[in-house]
Design brief:
The structure holds three protein chains of three kinds.
Chain A (H helix, E strand, L loop, with lengths): L1 H16 L2 H5 L7 E4 L6 H9 L5 H12 L19 E4 L2 H8 L7 E2 L10 E4 L5 E7 L7 H17 L2 E2 L2 E9 L4 H13 L3 E5 L4 H14 L2 E4 L15 E3 L4 H15 L4 E6 L3 H17 L2 E7 L8 H8 L5 E5 L2 H14 L5 E4 L6 H7 L7 E5 L8 H12 L8 H18 L1 E2 L5 E4 H9 L4 E2 L4 E2 L12 E7 L2 E4 L2
Parallel strand pairs in A: 3-16, 5-7, 5-8, 8-9, 9-10, 11-12, 11-13, 13-14, 14-15
Antiparallel strand pairs in A: 1-2, 4-17, 6-7, 15-20, 16-17, 18-19, 20-21
Chain B lengths: L2 H24 L2 H4 L4 E3 L2 E2 H22 L5 H28 L11 H8 L4 H24 L2 H19 L1 H6 L1 H10 L9 H20 L1 H9 L2 H50 L8 H15 L11 H20 L7 H20 L4 H4 L12 E2 L2 E2 L3 H24 L1 H11 L1 H6 L4 H27 L9 H14 L4 H17 L4 H18 L8 H21 L1
Antiparallel strand pairs in B: 1-2, 3-4
Helix pairs in contact in B: 1-3, 1-4, 3-4, 3-6, 4-5, 4-6, 7-10, 12-17, 12-20, 12-21, 12-22, 13-14, 13-15, 13-20, 14-20, 17-18, 17-20, 18-20, 21-22
Chain C lengths: L1 H11 L6 H28 L4 H32 L6 H22 L1 H4 L1 H28 L8 H22 L4 E2 L9 E6 L2 E6 H23 L1 H11 L1 H6 L4 H27 L1 E2 L5 H14 L4 H21 L7 H15 L15
Antiparallel strand pairs in C: 1-4, 2-3
Helix pairs in contact in C: 3-8, 3-11, 3-12, 3-13, 4-6, 4-7, 4-11, 4-12, 6-11, 8-9, 8-11, 9-11, 12-13, 13-14
Classes of the chains: A alpha/beta, B mainly alpha, C mainly alpha.
């Protein structure tokens, strides 16, 4: 008798531990249809329905999923831009809970690997889902950007350690930001059939040569920070990025300078990096198109320290603003040495390459009043602050470079796409079709990432298009206006 | 031998090894390797910690043994040495765990404490570190007592296990291993399993032990049937070279192509530096010129919009590189030694900066480089896969090796060597200095130009960033490491300096550190290179002899 | 020393036989000179820049040049004695800058910098000049001493390896982030001078750097010319064997040479940090190359040559992009081009070789 009692007790306890909520309402099955009223936002609804503002990405996710089959629903491409009258699907509380825990609908159940044009990755029971990561982890000047991205990606995996019962593993490789390194790493990943997709590469100069190799092998890449226009302009099917292209940030900055600051004469400087040069050209074209005048176009080199000669040459052309494309070190030299040349009244403006605390530290008082464009944190995900706190707790310092959020998002976009495209066998085996995965990534819409809203265009540009301007006030980056 | 001097030797060695150990811990190696498994559950960080104790013991014992053969003294010195090393590590652990040092020393993190303390409380961990170090130091002495044949056998066994353990994942990932495993129906994990590790240790040790038993018989075997052996080995090598890319898979083929490109450059620089004695630190310039010429003439997206096929653009690239070699050669004809070094370094930088600059951007793309360089077609096969490109590069290497060999024995080759040894005497002997030097620059440059052209075709897109000073330094280092003036040396050097870092790509953080330390150690231990040319070896010995003579006369 | 004597013979004989080539070079040289004059005249004719700008750029170039010169001294002294390029010297400079950062930042946090800035700066220089000699001497002892008799490429490669090693060691120990020197309030001001109706600002810091450089150079000159160790250094540079016969401890002299060179580089490192604020583990690379260029420009092995070469290079870098109206991006093209032109006409640098006449 006693034995039986113990057995019954254990079974009862075990049953209590089962996630009944999930079992009772399998994700994607239920929820209610809702029409947005005036002045209603998704976060308002999330707070009201689920008691959690942070839950609104779950609404987007389930709504967009259902919108694929239900024409009555409005597909959300930007959670910050819903209109009254939009008909959306509100998921159940349990679905929201599962979403916030990192689970997604899928993978589909099946008994056999799916047919896939680009091949299928088979992940046996208990085996890890391996995602490649390529960035420059050594090499002067760029290693700090790479380290920052690596941390972002690592935190993403730490937040979602499992995927449909499989552990997630990040395979980190160093590509040195060179074409040589980019192709070497690409071939290493392509030679390893267990790599599902690649987060990377970091620099356009390694992404572009690498993308040809990935394209040929049918590997999907999601770059967190390759902003060169050419990266997605070559009609590749597998090259994606969650950052914007230079063609977005440059003209947006030009518009801000011309319209908001009312400035008509600017000088531009770039640092000779593909990023800086591309950005400055986009800015200059945008500024000229608006009717402004670019009085000087100069360049420095990465590693230069004495910027007075270039500033002197610029000073006699009488610009009202200096627009700089490049990174923190050279940016800080330029900003601080303006004072020595006597043009401290000329406004200094940069882009996301300089929008870091180190810029203010290095340029000191001369940083005051400097502008920088960057991804709009107002459209950024609600989890940014929690993420930053976690970052500091884990690595003992604030992020030293701008692209940690993008790396975090790139990992998440890939993981969501795996859920949406993979097929899971009865024993837990996961089959991931490479082409299906790529299609799922390109179908990403309205995903609320930390860096902003991610909606993929047909060419693979998924990054947010909203640019926000910041200004240094009292030694802090604050939103401009 | 006095007790005091034994203890002093122990303390001295302990301090040195301890300082190195503290350095290695502080650069974060132990915590990084805490999750890297060598065999089964044995982590690489444990191995490193054990190695500190062994090194402390072995060094102290070796120093003492110069003066005494007493076992007691050796053990004492080793124990003291191990104790000091252990105490230094233990102190480091205590300091890091108690004092917040992270703002200065970035690796002084809780992970470091965890990796050093094996999950024990601090005091226990400190004692364990000291104990481990002392025991290992004494073990190192005891190991020295074994007969040399056993020692050798054990050492080779341990080295084999360590190497295979470290590279296990890479070995398992080879295409040929995958095939074998599929055939056998086994699946390999990411870590060398314990039984396999033990088996390997025993097997290698035994084989070495038995092998060493009959060292003489080997030589006699080799003497019989020399001609046949040679043909057989030639055929085998050729077969291996042909089968290689498909046996090792994509990544290693890619690495092989990189090694091949650097071999091309190494052979070219070997002519300039090794044969003609002109120290060139800007050799990357010719590589860049070859690559840009190829991209300009063959890419439809370049400013020329010609889109010539690879095989037509290749000689053009070669010509461009050779001409630029002569153009560089003319102004530096009168310069020697280190003056030449800095001018060529400047030339390399000038080319890179010009490629990057806004001035030439309309023509060669500036920082955005040149895109869409097509890969070569060979009888209708597009060689856009490193496995095919490997054959192209192999062929180029063979041609260049052949040319180098012929040049070595030719009239101009001898002229170069004469110029290297003494310009004035060479000129007096009727050698045209200008022609000889310009020829060296032109031929050296054209080899690099071919390398650059193939590089452009392999990459598809090239950027100025691909052509930094480090490429020049790499090439120079590889010919010195391999053995300057020696063609097999250059190839070996390329394998070591280009191939090895690729193998180590996963331990990216320590790669360049290891590269630097390796260069220093190599120069200290074997300055003539891995496979020195006969002439060079003789020269070094001559210098040594004369050095000894000088020292003798001075004293 | 078979190696040295062979080369000594080589360099003594002047090469006059390639005369056609030489004429060609003169033509090229004159052409370049004409081009430079034409560009300068063009800039002057446009009158964009007032005298204030030229004075500012000159000062600026002197500050930059002072730091180059101090680093170049280390190259040239080691070369004069050992005939080797100490490629790792730039990293010694970097270590000085790093050591200075940690001390000054410590004082900044403890408040000493605010309460007693002179003492804080003095201590920063003491540490910044004290740590590099330790590294420099260790480097010589471990990596270079065993190679004294090896062919010259061997120590060069060894030095390249040491350079990588030191740079990466600092990176791994202290992290990859840029270290920012705290602002020193007493030095951040400037004097305003009226030049030709326009205000010219001369920063206190630039004056300090030039003054310290002059003091260090005079001290070095006195050391080499007037003291016993200086005499020993010159003797060793002249002929190691003979010096040893005269009872000079050659190893000791070489060690002292490395220590002095490293201390000067350390001082330059601290000044670099104070002037440019940002230091990082790669900060030594470009100044190292530039200082080496300066040493060659002045005539390697020659101490006054290195001083002059450094100041000259700094001056050209600061003023040439403006004067010649060339993009600042091509600054290094100008400096290396200058080097080539100078070496074409004076193959052993501007000041030739005074210190050790018979070495190439």
């Amino acid at each position: 008798m006693k034995k039986w009692f113990v057995v019954v007790l254990i079974v009862t306890l075990a049953l209590m531990l089962l996630p009944w909520g999930v079992l009772a309402a399998p994700p994607g099955q239920e929820g209610k249809i809702y029409t947005l009223g005036p002045r209603e936002t998704l976060s308002l609804i999330a707070a009201r329905e689920y008691g959690n503002v942070l839950a609104y990405p779950a609404i987007v996710y389930y709504n967009n999923l259902a919108a694929q089959t239900n024409p009555q629903l409005t597909k959300i491409t930007d959670p910050n831009a819903v209109k009254p009258g939009d008909v959306i699907l509100l998921p159940t509380a349990d679905q929201v809970k599962a979403y916030l825990a990192g689970e997604r609908v899928g993978p589909a159940k099946g008994d056999a690997p799916p047919d896939d044009l680009w091949g299928v990755v088979t992940i046996g029971p208990g085996e890890p889902v391996r995602i490649g990561f390529a960035a420059a982890l050594s090499g002067a000047g760029v290693d700090v950007l790479g380290l920052d991205e690596k941390r972002g990606a690592e935190l993403a995996v730490a937040d979602r350690p499992t995927l449909a019962g499989h552990p997630v593993e990040l395979v980190v490789e160093d590509d040195l930001c060179s074409g040589e390194g980019g192709t070497a790493v690409a071939n290493k990943f392509v030679a390893d059939p267990t790599i599902v997709a690649v987060v990377g590469n970091m620099c356009s100069s390694s992404s572009i040569p690498a993308s040809d190799i990935y394209e040929k092998a049918g590997y999907t890449m999601v770059s967190p920070s390759s902003t060169a226009v050419a990266f997605t302009a070559r009609g590749l099917r597998s090259a994606n990025r969650v950052c914007w292209s230079d063609a977005i940030q440059g003209p947006a900055a030009a518009k801000f300078v011309y319209e908001k600051l009312g400035i008509r004469k600017v000088a531009t400087i770039h640092d000779g990096s593909p990023y800086g040069e591309g950005l400055v050209n986009a800015f200059a074209e945008g500024f000229k198109a608006l009717g402004g005048e670019v009085v000087a176009q100069e360049a420095v080199s990465v590693g230069d320290t004495d910027m007075r000669p270039v500033l002197t040459k610029i000073s006699v052309t009488g610009p009202e603003l200096i627009y700089f494309g490049g990174f923190v070190a050279e940016g800080a030299f330029l900003a601080s040495q303006r004072v020595d040349v006597g043009i401290e009244k000329v406004i200094f403006m940069g882009a996301d390459g300089i929008k870091a605390d180190d810029f203010i530290k290095a340029a000191g008082a001369a940083a005051e009043g400097a502008y920088a464009s960057a991804a709009d944190l107002a459209t950024a995900g609600p989890g940014v602050n929690a993420f930053l706190a976690k970052y500091e707790a884990t690595y003992g310092e604030k992020p030293p470079a701008p692209f940690h959020l993008h790396a975090y998002d790139a990992v998440n976009v890939i993981m969501d796409a795996i859920y949406a495209s993979a097929v899971q066998g009865p024993d837990g085996t996961l089959w991931i079709g490479r082409e299906a995965l790529n299609r799922a990534i390109r179908a990403t819409s309205g995903y609320q990432g930390l860096s902003g809203v991610i909606t993929c265009q047909p060419n693979g540009d998924c990054g947010t298009g909203t640019v926000a301007m910041s200004k240094v006030v009292n030694g802090q980056w604050v939103p401009a206006e | 031998m006095k007790l005091l001097s034994v203890v002093r030797a122990g303390i001295r060695n302990g301090l040195i090894v301890g300082a190195v150990a503290v350095f290695i811990v502080l650069i974060g190696m132990v915590q990084t390797f805490a999750k890297r498994y060598l065999v089964s559950d044995l982590t690489l960080s444990t191995v490193i910690l054990v190695a500190f104790g062994l090194a402390a013991g072995a060094l102290a014992a070796q120093q003492v043994s110069r003066n005494t053969t007493q076992l007691g003294s050796k053990v004492l010195a080793a124990a003291v040495s191990g104790l000091i090393t252990g105490v230094m590590l233990a102190l480091l652990l205590l300091v890091v765990s108690q004092v917040p040092l992270r703002d200065v020393l970035v690796n002084a993190t809780p992970e470091m404490v965890a990796a050093l303390s094996f999950g024990l409380p601090l005091s226990g961990a400190a004692l364990l570190l000291i104990g481990l170090s002392v025991v290992m130091a004494v073990l190192a002495v005891l190991y020295g007592l074994l007969p040399s044949r056993v020692r050798r056998a054990l050492l080779e066994g341990i080295m084999a296990v360590t190497l295979i353990g470290i590279f296990w994942e890479a070995i398992v990932g080879l295409d040929v291993s995958r095939l074998v495993m599929k055939f056998l129906g086994v699946k390999a994990g990411k870590v060398l399993p314990l039984p396999a590790g033990l088996g390997l240790l025993i097997l290698v040790s035994l084989v070495t032990y038995v092998w060493r038993a009959h060292p003489q018989s080997n030589v006699t075997v080799r003497r019989t049937g020399e001609g046949l052996r040679r043909y057989v080995s030639l055929v085998l090598i050729a077969g291996a070279l042909i089968a290689l890319p498909f046996a090792v898979g994509l990544f290693w083929s890619q690495t092989l192509t990189t090694i091949g490109l650097f071999t091309l450059m190494g052979l070219g620089l070997n002519i300039v530096v090794g044969m003609a004695g002109l120290l060139d630190l800007g050799y990357v310039a010719f590589y860049a010129i070859g690559a840009y010429a190829m991209a300009l003439f063959s890419s439809p997206a370049s400013s020329l919009h010609i889109g010539l096929p690879f095989w037509v653009a290749l000689p053009i690239a070669l010509l461009f590189a050779a001409i630029s070699g002569i153009l560089l050669g003319i102004p530096v004809l009168r310069l020697r030694g280190d003056y030449l070094a800095i001018v060529t370094l400047g030339f390399g930088e000038i080319i890179r900066i010009l490629a990057l600059s806004d001035v030439l951007k309309p023509y060669i793309g500036g920082p955005q480089g040149i895109m869409e360089t097509p890969s070569p077609f060979f009888f209708g096969i597009q060689m856009n896969d490193p496995r095919y490109l490997y054959y192209l590069i192999l062929a180029a290497c063979l041609v260049v090796v052949f040319l180098s060999l012929r040049l070595n024995d030719s009239r101009i080759g001898r002229a170069w060597i004469a110029v290297r040894e003494d310009e004035d005497v060479a000129q007096a002997m009727g050698i045209n200095l200008v022609a000889a030097k310009l020829m060296a620059f032109a031929i050296g440059a054209s080899f690099a130009g071919v390398g650059g052209a193939i590089f452009a075709a392999r990459q598809g897109a090239i950027f100025p960033m691909d052509f930094t000073l480090f490429v020049s330094i790499n090439v120079l280092c590889l010919i010195i490491i391999g053995g300057i003036g020696s063609i097999p040396g250059v190839i070996t050097g390329a394998f070591f300096l280009i191939g090895l870092p690729e193998v180590l790509r996963e331990v990216d953080e320590y790669r360049i550190l290891a590269y630097g330390a390796g260069l220093v150690i190599m120069m200290l231990v074997r300055p003539e290179g891995l496979i020195p040319s006969a002439r060079r070896r003789l020269e070094l010995h001559e210098a040594e002899d004369q050095g000894e003579l000088a020292a003798y006369t001075v004293s | 020393m078979a190696v040295v004597s062979r080369e000594a013979q080589v360099s003594r004989a002047p090469i006059v036989r390639v005369s056609v080539n030489r004429i060609l070079l003169w033509v090229v040289g004159l052409g370049v000179a004409a081009l430079v004059v034409w560009r300068i005249a063009g800039t002057a004719a446009r009158g964009l820049y007032g005298p204030d700008i030229w004075i500012m750029q000159t000062l600026n170039g002197l500050v930059q040049g002072s730091m180059y010169a101090l680093v170049a001294l280390g190259y040239t002294m080691v070369y004069g004695i050992l005939l080797m390029i100490n490629f790792a010297h730039g990293e010694i400079f970097m270590i000085g800058a790093m050591a200075g950062y940690f001390v000054l930042n410590g004082f900044h946090q403890s408040g000493l910098l605010a309460s007693d800035p002179v003492l804080a700066l003095l201590l920063t220089f003491v540490v910044g000049m004290g740590v590099p000699p330790i590294v420099g001497v260790l480097l010589e002892r471990i990596a270079y001493r065993p190679l004294r008799r090896a062919p010259r490429l061997v120590p060069l490669i060894c030095a390249i390896g040491a350079s990588f090693f030191l740079q990466q060691a600092v990176r791994l120990l202290f992290g990859i982030r840029t270290k920012v020197y705290p602002t020193v309030a007493v030095l951040s001001g400037s004097w305003t001078v009226n030049v030709g109706g326009r205000d010219l600002r001369i920063q206190h810091m630039s004056a300090l750097i030039i003054v310290i450089t002059i003091i260090l150079m005079v001290a070095l000159y006195l050391l080499v010319r007037k003291t016993k160790i200086g005499k020993a250094m010159r003797a060793v540079a002249e002929d190691k064997e003979a010096a040893a016969l005269m009872g000079i401890d050659v190893d000791w002299v070489i060690m002292i040479t490395f220590a002095i060179g490293s201390a000067l580089a350390g001082a330059a490192g601290v000044m670099w940090g104070l002037w440019y604020k940002q230091v990082i583990h790669t900060v030594g690379f470009i100044p190292g190359i530039k200082a080496f260029t300066s040493a060659v420009l002045g005539g390697i092995g020659n101490i006054p040559g290195a001083m002059m070469g450094g100041l000259f290079l700094g001056f050209v870098e600061a003023i040439a992009p403006t004067a010649l109206d060339i993009s600042t991006q091509l600054k290094d093209v100008i400096s290396f081009g200058l080097l080539v032109i100078v070496l074409i006409f004076r193959p052993s640098g501007i000041l030739g070789e005074v210190l050790s006449g018979k070495k190439a």
